[in-house]
Design brief:
By secondary structure, the protein is an alpha+beta fold. It has 3 domains: 115 residues, Alpha-Beta Plaits (2-Layer Sandwich); 187 residues, Orthogonal Bundle (Trigger factor, domain 2), CATH 1.10.3120; 99 residues, Chitinase A, domain 3, CATH 3.10.50. Strands 6, 7, 8, 9 and 10 form a 5-stranded antiparallel β-sheet that branches. A 4-stranded antiparallel β-sheet has the order 1-2-4-3.
Length: 445
């Protein structure tokens, strides 16, 4: 086995792998003995097929598999031993590959093209300036969150006189018909017909209201079938009036801004008064907006640092060929169109690799678990659930990390955060306060 390297230029090279047929004999014999044990040939008992027949039937197929495996092993061992930083994967050379004859050739030679990562040296110092946008938390944002909590943690209370948004419970029966429901529930606000809605507004307990479900819930078979507890296909037969006897009226009352609300949102005694409540809300909004700021910083850092590679030569022809070879659904036209974006991503990866190497950045299991916890915490926060117990976060994180795709994504995220942290330490950060509206406009430019 022999591997020869021929450099084409600074970023393109060829690897020629030579293998003697004799080097395959021992593995070939083992492979054929395995075929002999399993071969099912008419006229022979299992394991009793003559070796000559096995060689004739499977010899070339087995030899090709062995050669391919040995070539692959030798290729990647050479790359590893020589610490070659390659881009993509080796591709068979389309011009110099010779045809081979398995019957007569005693030596087989395979030629592969490889792309070498260019040597880069992106300098990170205080001469490099990157803006970090601190998104301001407005009083309106705080007030909207307060209203959200007040609404979410309210409760239903019994009342005497119905309003449009109240929940009305009672019994309903068809006028001059047979349909009756003892535990019917309706909300006037959900009715499409305003006249039908108004029949219930101002009504009291024990009042009897005659109305038309067909008009009230026009063209809504699901609503009528659920209300009258009938099949959807029977709804088309409903045209009569119904009498609704009110048994109970309940109204949703928003929560008071008091200690009970504070405890429900942030945990018992975490907040003592309304000022602390609003300040805590502000802190949480700031924390949630931080991911937006970090995302924008990452984009800007990528733009600034990859621009330093504008004059660096990349093996573009090879990379286009490799993309086509590994993405069968992509056409040459698509690759040409999308290649600038692909190349930019590759440049960013090269920059990140350099920064990670220079700063000895590594990711361990604790980093990935912490990333999973943060992701879980952010998901709960979207639903206003801020006070999540540590054991719940731990369990959610463990379940998430059982999924291979999720683990890979979180690992990459943890690595990116450490790399961005190293960038922040090295370059000059220009902090800029900005409103959420103006921040959004940055992505329209």
């Amino acid at each position: 086995m022999n591997v020869l390297r021929t450099d084409i230029d600074a970023v393109n090279a060829k690897l020629t792998v030579q293998i003697a047929k004799a080097d395959c004999n021992e593995d070939l014999e083992k492979e054929l003995r395995s075929y002999k044990k399993k071969a099912n040939v008419p006229g022979f008992r299992p394991g009793m097929v003559p070796m000559g027949m096995i060689k004739k039937m499977y010899g070339k197929y087995a030899l090709v598999n062995i050669i391919n495996q040995k070539i692959s092993d030798a290729l990647y061992q050479y790359i590893k031993d020589n610490n070659l930083q390659i881009l993509g994967e080796p591709l068979p050379n389309e011009e110099e590959q010779k045809e081979m004859n398995l019957d007569t050739d005693e030596t087989f030679e395979y030629v592969f093209d490889i792309a070498l990562a260019p040597e880069v040296n992106v300098t990170l110092d205080k001469k490099t300036k990157i803006t970090y946008y601190d998104i301001e938390v407005s009083s309106e944002m705080i007030e909207n969150q307060v209203k959200s909590y007040v609404g979410r943690f309210g409760s239903y209370e019994s009342t005497e006189v119905a309003e449009e948004k109240d929940m009305i419970k009672g019994s309903v029966k068809e006028v001059n018909g047979t349909i009756e429901v003892a535990d019917a529930v309706l909300c006037p606000a959900y009715m499409k017909d305003k006249d039908q809605t108004n029949l219930f507004v101002g009504a009291k307990k024990e009042d009897k209201i005659t109305f038309s479900p067909a008009k009230a819930y026009e063209n809504n078979e699901a609503e009528i079938s659920a209300f009258l507890k009938i099949k959807k296909e029977d709804v088309k037969n409903i045209s009569a009036d119904f009498e609704f006897t009110i048994n109970e009226i309940t109204r949703y009352k928003e929560s008071e801004i008091d200690q009970t609300l504070f405890d429900k949102v942030f945990g018992e005694n975490a907040v003592k008064d309304e000022n602390e409540f609003r300040e805590k809300i502000k802190e949480n909004i700031q924390e949630s907006l931080k991911s937006n700021s970090e995302y924008k910083f990452a984009l800007d850092a990528k733009e600034v640092l990859t621009k330093k590679l504008d004059k660096v030569v990349f093996p573009e022809a090879f990379l286009k060929r490799w993309v086509l070879a590994t993405n069968k659904n992509m056409s040459e036209e698509t690759v040409e169109k999308e290649f600038p974006a692909m190349l930019n991503e590759l440049k960013w990866q090269v920059v990140c690799d350099q920064i990670a190497k220079e700063n000895e950045i590594k990711i361990d299991e604790n980093d990935v678990v912490e990333q999973a916890k943060n992701a879980t915490k952010a998901q709960f926060a979207q639903y206003g659930m801020m006070n999540i117990p540590a054991d719940v976060l731990e369990n959610y994180a463990k379940e998430t990390l059982k999924k291979e795709d999720a683990r890979k994504r979180l690992l990459e995220k943890a690595l990116e955060e450490k790399i961005l942290g190293a960038i922040k330490e090295a370059v000059k950060i220009e902090n800029k306060n900005i409103s959420i509206e103006d921040f959004g406009n940055l992505f329209k430019e």
